Amino acid sequence: MAQIVETEAYVGPHDDASHAAERVGRTARNASMFGRPGTAYVYRIYGIHWCLNVVTGREGYPAAVLLRAACPVSGIEAMRERRGGRRNRDLLRGPGNLCSALGVDGSLDGHLLDRPPLEIRSGGVVDPARIRSGPRVGVTRAADLPLRFSVRDCAWVSGRSPSPPTTAMSDK
Q1: CA distances (Å), 69 to each of 5, 16, 25, 36, 58, in order?
Q2: Which of 26, 51, 92, 141 is packed most tightly, with the most Cβ within 10 A?
């Protein structure tokens, strides 16, 4: 189990960075983005890493949120094994690492995220003052839009984080 601490939004066909932008349309790869809200859109990037998105738009409208990073809560040993013994802080930092640590692969594309084996549940409320936004990462189109959201001063956010972890979890 993990707590999501960083996301990146892709807001519909008018979003030129989206896999379902108007210039692309619906394809076999992005078909899950057109599903009902709460559907997993899982794809491979660079032919190496899996990435997990949650469909957020109404059925037929391709909007989704990429899960970029999470804080491990339980099942850490399994995550560490999947990630080659990485430190806790590095288990779920970055979308490819997150998928690797959680065992997410293409077989979960189209999966409804309100049921096993992969579920997203409501968590605690984060104080809006602790949420920061900024430009998306790793895209060349519409990269300047402030659609990347993360918990401020959280060590599990992808990229460099000078702050210590925001929970008491140890880092082996």
Answers
A1: 6, 23, 28, 23, 25
A2: 92
